[in-house]
Amino acid sequence: MRHTSAGQSRSNYGALCGLLLGALALLVVAPAVLSDFRLSLLGRFVCYAIVAVGIGLAWGRGGMLTLGQGVFFGLGGYVMAFHLKLADAGPSGVPDFMLLYGSGHLPFWWEPFRSPVVTLLGVILIPSLVAFGLGIAIFRRRVRGAYFAILSQALAAAFTILLIGQQVTLGGFNGLNGFRSFFGFNLYDPVNKRMLFYIAAVILLITLAVVWQLYRSRYGELLIAVRDQEERVRFLGYDPANIKLVAYVLAAAMAGIAGALFVPIVGIISPANVGVVPSIAFLIGVAIGGRATLFGPVLGAIAVAWAQTALSESFPSFWSYFQGALFVLVIAFLPAGLSSVSLLRGSWQRRQRFGTRAGRMAAPQADAAPSLPSESGLSGISAGSETGQ
Amino acid sequence: MQALYSQLVAGISLGSILLLAALGLALTFGQMGVINMAHGEFIMAGSYTAFVIQKVIADAGISLLLAIPLGFLVGGLMGVLLEATLIRRMYHRPLDTLLVTWGVSLILQQAARDIFGAPNVDVRAPSWLSGGIDVGITHVPAARLFILMLAAAAVAGLSLVLKTMPLGRRIRGVVQNRDLAETVGISTRNTDRLTFFIGSGLAGIAGVALTLLGSTGPTLGTSYIVDAFLVVVVGGIGQIKGAVIAAFGLGLLQATFEYSTTASIAKVMVFVVIVVFLQIRPQGIFSVRTRSLA
Question: ipTM value of the model?
Answer without folding.
Answer: 0.86
